[in-house]
Each structure stands twice: as structure tokens, then as C-alpha cells.
Amino acid sequence: MTLQKRYIADNVRLSRIRTNKFKTETVAFSLTLPLTRRAYLLGLLLSGVMRRGSESFPSMALLNKRLDELYASTVEINSTTCAGTLSLNVSAEMIDGRFALDGTDISGGVIEVIADILLRPLRSGNAFPADTVASEIALVKDALLAEKNNTRSYAATRLRELLGRANAERPTLEYLLGEIDSITPEELYDHYLRLLSSAPLNVFYVGAEDTDSIAEKILRAFSQFVGHSFTPVPVRLPDKPLEFISVTEDMPVSQGKLALGLRTGAGLGNGQHTTAIVLNELLGASPASKLFLNVRERLGLCYYCSSSYSPFSGNLTVSSGIDSSKLDVVTEEIMRQLDEIKKGNISDTEFTAARKSLEYSYVQIYDSPFSLQGFYSGRDTVGCDETVEECKQKLLAVTAEEVCQLAGNVVWDTRFFINGTQTQDGGEEEADNE
Q1: In the chain, fewer beta carbons within 10 Å around the N or the C end?
Q2: 350 vs 319, 329, 346, 391, CA distance in Å?
């Protein structure tokens, strides 16, 4: 399964993987612009408003009826961020046309539905319907407020905010809640028009249909699309370390949440991301990692402890649920486990387990059209043409010495801690334990 890219117009690019491995096909349309705080907030609302209907399907009931006619196809609309960009995405999953008993052009029908959603949303004059916008503001506000109730998720969000503190345009939960009521139907519609006129259209397709056939259907359905021509994607280098900061918030919960942010200096922009992926696997990304086996299992210092790595920012983060009185002890032990890797204290068993786990996870990407789309679309955002197979082979070629050397360059500059002020009673957060 090889990725092929083709410009089917100056402002429309089709990336596709042709395969008959799946009984379903996926197609995803994305409009992408630089990320700003205001644009992020508008994007949250826009994706919800556009779910409500279009000119041809002015209600969700009519939209779902049409999708049912197309062999129960599904369409999802969302707004995502990646490497300093903001994207409005409309994606669909549908049965492969080979299995349509009545000859229905399923892919053509789905692409027409998506075009109607993107190009002809419901509006009221030069604005979106006021009642729709007001309803969506209430829904998004409730979702933002509810985020604090999941303290594990909230700690991760606050850590990301602190890691991005050098960027004034980084959206924060406080900013979003403070500004959401100021959004008007007119401003939201203006944002939509800017998106249509200023962004090129990226289309990603996974399925068995011929490239020319899919391209023809896209161009026919999107003949009214204005957009903007493609420009070279600037390579994003990993985030640089900042002056150390530690922030604590008291909350009436029983389990403390610790989140650490570390800069690896390794990312897609400099080609060192595969070494960082192995480092993350060894540190805390699997049940065979140092954090899980030592901090959680052997020493019993936490309810859970794991790490994750972003190849776009180069940041390595550690998340742990702890007894709040053990903050310093857990923090020191986490950093000690990283030091063990720096010193080269990695057994052959640990390294082999990490490599096998990663190899299996990358083989699994081929088992899902959405996994393939996610892998390639993210890398495309930062101008990286690496294939799944190339990434897997690079991972298998990483040596323990290279991991130790990279670990030695890691800088810890951010800590966020939720101090639980209630006594542990086995109540509200037991489901959070791993």
C-alpha cells in the first residue's frame, strides 16, 4: 500500500492509498490555516454548526437519511490542530462500491454530501442562524467546563498550555471560556468564508477505486470551490527548552495528578523522531517500560505512570496519578528512571521488548484506513514524506547508544500538579486507576 499524491487542481490535492484489503473506503477533506487563539475558538464552533445541516440537507435527520441510502455511510466533522495549524475536517467511511448490490455510486454520493456540507451550509443572510450558533456556544462551553471534572485530562491540557507558554497565540482553557460568549453569527460566518477562500483543499482517500475516477468525482462536486493554491510547507523544528516553571492547583479530589514536560530536541523537522519514539517506549509508553515496572509496580508510588511523545513538537510528557503527599518522591523517581536510560542502564530484554512493541504497533497501522490517514496527514502538515514502512525500518535500526545519547539531551522545564485536597476514599477517581 503506497501513498500517491496528485494535484487535481491548483488548490486541490488528492492523496490516496489504493488497496482492496478493506471492505470499506474512507475519504477525508481538510481545509488548513495557521493557528491563532481566535481561529481555534471559531473552529470549535464552526465544526458543530456545520453538523446541523446544509442547503440540500437542512436537518440532521435529512442528512442521516441520505447517508442511510448510501449503504449506511457515516460522516464526521471536526476541528483539529497540528504543528501550529488549524484544520476543519470532514471525513467519511462507506462500503466499497464493489459490494453495492444495486450499482449505487456510493463514493460519488458521499463526496456530493460532503461538498454540500462544506460549500453550502445553512445560513441566514450573511451569517449563520443565530439560534444554531447560540446552541453550539452552550454545548462547547459545557464541554470546556466539564473538562476539569476529568482531572487526568485536565492535567494533560494544562501541561500542554504551559509547554506552549512562549506562543501568545496558543489557545488556553481560560481564554476559550472567557471569549466564547463574544462570538457572533456574523463573525463565525466570516471565519468560514476566510477558510474557503484562503485554504487549499487536501483530500485523502483509502480504497480500491481508480484514482482518475475519484479525482473526477471530487472536481465535479467541488467545482464551486475557490480556495487558495498550495504553498511549500515550512519544516517545523522541535520546541526549545524554556526557563523551568512549576504550577500547582488545589482541587477537591482525592487523587493528585502529576504532569511533567520535557524537551527532547528531536522531531520530524530534524529526523531524530524515531530515536525519541524508542526512548519514549523504554521510559513509559508500555507495560514493559521503566516507569510502569518501577514507579508503579515495584515501588508502588502511584496509581498509574506513563509517558507520551509528540514528533511534531519534540516534547516528551509524563502523566501520573499519585497520593498528593508523595509529589516530590514520585517526581524524583520518574527523573531517576530517565537518568538510568541516560547512563545506559538498559537491559537487552528491555530494548528487545521495546522494539518488538513498536514494530507491532506500526504493522497495525496497515489494518485501519483511519490509522493510515492519521499517519500520513500529520506528517504532510510539516512537510515530511516518510512512509509507514520507512518509519518502521528506522525504528528497528535505532541503537541503545543512540537512545542514551538523546536522553542525555533531554531538558525538563515544565511541571503541573493537581493537589488533591480530599482524603482518598476509593470513590470518584477509582476508574482513573490503571
Answers
A1: C
A2: 21, 24, 6, 21
In angstroms, the CA 133 to CA 3 distance is: 39
With DSSP H G I counted as helix, E B as strand and the rest as coil, what are the percentages for the chain, rounded to 5?
Answer: 45, 20, 30
- Say how many C-beta atoms besides its own lie within 10 A of residue 308's C-beta: 14
- The whole-angstrom separation of Cα 68 and Cα 95 is 11
Question: How far apart are alpha carbons 234 and 306 in whole angstroms?
Answer: 32
b/e burial code for range 123-146 (CB count within 10 A of at least 16 → b): beeeebbeebbeebbeebeeebee
Could you give the domains of the chain? 3-221 (3.30.830.10), 245-432 (3.30.830.10)
Give the Cα separation of 91 and 89 in Å (integer). 6
Q: Which three cell numbers stand for residue 34?
A: 495557521
- The arithmetic mean of pLDDT across residues 262-275, rounded, is 93
Give the pLDDT confidence score for residue 381 in this predicted structure: 80
pLDDT in tens, 131-157: 999 999 999 999 999 988 899 999 999
pTM above 0.85, yes or no: yes
DSSP alpha helix (H) spans, 147-291: 151-163, 173-179, 185-198, 211-221, 273-280, 290
Q: Read off the pLDDT band of 431 (50, 70, 90).
A: very low
Dist. CA 79–CA 176, nearest whole Å: 15
Cβ count within 10 A of residue 69? 12
d(CA 283, CA 293): 10
pLDDT in tens, 390-429: 999 999 999 999 999 999 999 999 999 999 998 765 444 4
Instruction: List Cα–Cα distances, 321 to 29, 38, 302, 332, in angstroms.
Output: 38, 33, 6, 15
| Cα atoms found within 13 Å of the Cα of residue 19, Cβ hemisphere only | 19
